[in-house]
């Protein structure tokens, strides 16, 4: 039995002698992908400094899960094998995706892994809005202990798709929204940390995953980013969804993007924290993914690369953004389009879209911590769960690609 297994289980007398803290409440983080890992690490920070708890991490099989072990190892997090995790009883489990959760032995809290519920899956066997399908809300047909949603406006959709979970649903908010809002005042510091000179404009190209994403047509758009943005005025950074890296393999994605570094275009690695880069941006060229939507919290004008109607939840803020932000033209010069987006930008319009991300702005930590401790049957620690500003990012030049090898 490994040390982690001994901690996670009610340790035997033989294994207990090697442990220092025993008889802790046991929490399990179910990490399917790197994207889910980032969301869960934000949430589990609410449990820090509580010596009554022991947290374990496990990774169920997932098509985009190959990079999870390395991502967690880099953060000093050992991974409890899935086969062991499903045979241990925990006091709480948290997950941002539904796969395999019916095998978990614990009161379970489920939550979204991105901004709101943006995507429809028309081609899937269980068509519907990702995160709001019955298979998402009742994994394996089993009801969780609690379902977390970001906004009160999400409740009617839950009532339509899966009324059984309404009584278990808690409107908690959005941790990324709160963290970005808490960090907006540090924009100048993030720009200095990135190495931006006075007068330089940072353009970030943001892609979700899938054939209708920005990256799905990158072979035609990348040359424009390289050729049409004068290097003396613009710096460019690419934010590509971790599922692209996992789905195609890091070597392949680095190879596809190898020309970027030779043209001073920075490729933000999938394990990096993109939120400070988003805050530092002067312009966002994005698609229908969560990062573009979070961009409405900043004052950066947004150019949209396609708005695939079949993939966008028509009740989501992404649908409103699709008819608000100007669409990238294939024929007009890119610099002119960025200038046009800036001239047409109306902060009130984008602030209204951002407000649809959460109906509990600034209160996610308070609400989520209360819920987790209630499920565990413990009193909360006697201090306010603060929302801290994001740390400074590395300089852009450290995110480079040289013959398919990224260094950071």
- What is the H level of CATH, i.e. the homologous superfamily of the largest domain? Glycogen Phosphorylase B
- Strand arrangement within the widest β-sheet reads 3-2-1-4-5-6-7
What is the CATH level 1 assignment of the largest domain? Alpha Beta
Question: Measured on Cα atoms, how large is the radius of gyration?
Answer: 22 Å
Q: Tell me, what's the shape?
A: globular
Extract low-pLDDT stretches. 401-408
Structural class: alpha/beta
Compact description:
The protein is of the alpha/beta class. It has 19 helices and 14 strands.
Helix and strand arrangement:
Elements: H1 3-8, H2 13-16, E1 25-30, H3 34-44, E2 53-58, H4 68-73, E3 79-80, H5 82-85, E4 92-95, E5 108-110, H6 134-137, E6 146-149, H7 155-161, E7 169-171, H8 175-183, H9 187-194, E8 201-207, H10 218-227, E9 234-240, H11 242-248, H12 250-256, H13 258-262, E10 265-268, H14 275-280, E11 283-286, H15 290-294, E12 302-304, H16 317-322, H17 334-344, H18 347-355, H19 364-376, E13 400-402, E14 405-407
Parallel strand pairs: 1-2, 1-4, 2-3, 4-5, 5-6, 6-7, 8-9, 8-11, 9-10, 11-12
Antiparallel strand pairs: 13-14
Helix pairs in contact: 11-12
Describe this structure in words.
By secondary structure, the chain is an alpha/beta fold. The protein folds into 2 domains: 3-175 and 359-376, Rossmann fold (3-Layer(aba) Sandwich); 177-358 and 398-407, 3-Layer(aba) Sandwich (Rossmann fold). 34% of the residues lie in helices and 14% in strands. It has helices at 3-8, 13-16, 34-44, 68-73, 82-85, 134-137, 155-161, 175-183, 187-194, 218-227, 242-248, 250-256, 258-262, 275-280, 290-294, 317-322, 334-344, 347-355, 364-376; strands spanning 25-30, 53-58, 79-80, 92-95, 108-110, 146-149, 169-171, 201-207, 234-240, 265-268, 283-286, 302-304, 400-402, 405-407. The strands form 3 sheets. A 7-stranded parallel β-sheet has the order 3-2-1-4-5-6-7. A 5-stranded parallel β-sheet has the order 10-9-8-11-12. A hairpin with a 2-residue loop joins strand 13 (400-402) and strand 14 (405-407). Helix 11 (242-248) crosses helix 12 (250-256). The chain is globular. The model is unreliable at 401-408 (pLDDT under 50).
């Amino acid at each position: 039995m490994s040390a982690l297994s001994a901690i996670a289980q009610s340790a035997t007398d033989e294994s207990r002698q090697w442990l220092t803290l025993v008889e802790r409440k046991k929490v399990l983080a179910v990490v399917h992908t790197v994207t889910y890992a980032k969301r869960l690490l934000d949430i589990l920070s609410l449990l820090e400094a509580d010596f009554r708890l022991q947290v374990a991490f496990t990774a169920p099989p997932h098509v985009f899960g190959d990079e999870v072990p390395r991502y967690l190892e880099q953060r000093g997090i050992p991974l409890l094998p899935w086969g062991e995790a499903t045979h241990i009883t925990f006091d709480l489990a948290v997950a941002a995706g539904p796969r395999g959760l019916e095998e978990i032995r614990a009161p379970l809290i489920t939550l979204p892994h991105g901004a709101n519920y943006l995507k429809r899956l028309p081609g899937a066997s269980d068509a519907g809005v990702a995160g709001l399908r019955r298979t998402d809300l009742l994994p394996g047909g089993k009801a969780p202990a609690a379902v977390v949603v970001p906004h009160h406006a999400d409740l009617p959709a839950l009532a339509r798709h899966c009324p059984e979970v309404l009584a278990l649903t808690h409107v908690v908010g959005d941790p990324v929204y709160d963290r970005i809002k808490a960090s907006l005042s540090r924009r100048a510091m993030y720009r200095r940390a990135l190495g931006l000179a006075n007068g330089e404009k940072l353009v970030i190209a943001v892609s979700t995953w899938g054939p209708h994403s920005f990256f799905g047509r990158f072979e035609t758009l990348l040359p424009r980013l390289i050729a049409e943005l004068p290097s003396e005025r613009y710096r460019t950074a690419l934010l590509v969804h971790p599922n692209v890296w996992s789905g195609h393999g890091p070597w392949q994605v680095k190879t596809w993007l190898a020309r970027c570094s030779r043209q001073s275009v920075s490729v933000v690695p999938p394990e990096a924290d993109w939120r400070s880069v988003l805050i530092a941006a002067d312009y966002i060229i994005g698609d229908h993914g969560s990062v573009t939507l979070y961009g409405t919290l900043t004052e950066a004008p947004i150019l949209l690369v396609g708005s695939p109607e079949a993939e966008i939840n028509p009740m989501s803020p992404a649908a409103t953004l699709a008819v608000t932000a100007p669409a990238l033209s294939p024929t007009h010069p890119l610099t002119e389009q960025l200038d046009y987006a800036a001239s047409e930008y109306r902060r009130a319009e984008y602030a209204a879209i951002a407000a649809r991300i959460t109906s509990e702005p600034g209160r996610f930590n308070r609400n989520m911590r209360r819920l987790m401790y209630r499920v565990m049957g413990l009193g909360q620690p006697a201090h306010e769960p603060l929302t801290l500003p994001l740390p400074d990012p590395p300089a852009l030049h450290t995110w480079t690609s040289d013959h398919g090898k990224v260094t950071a």
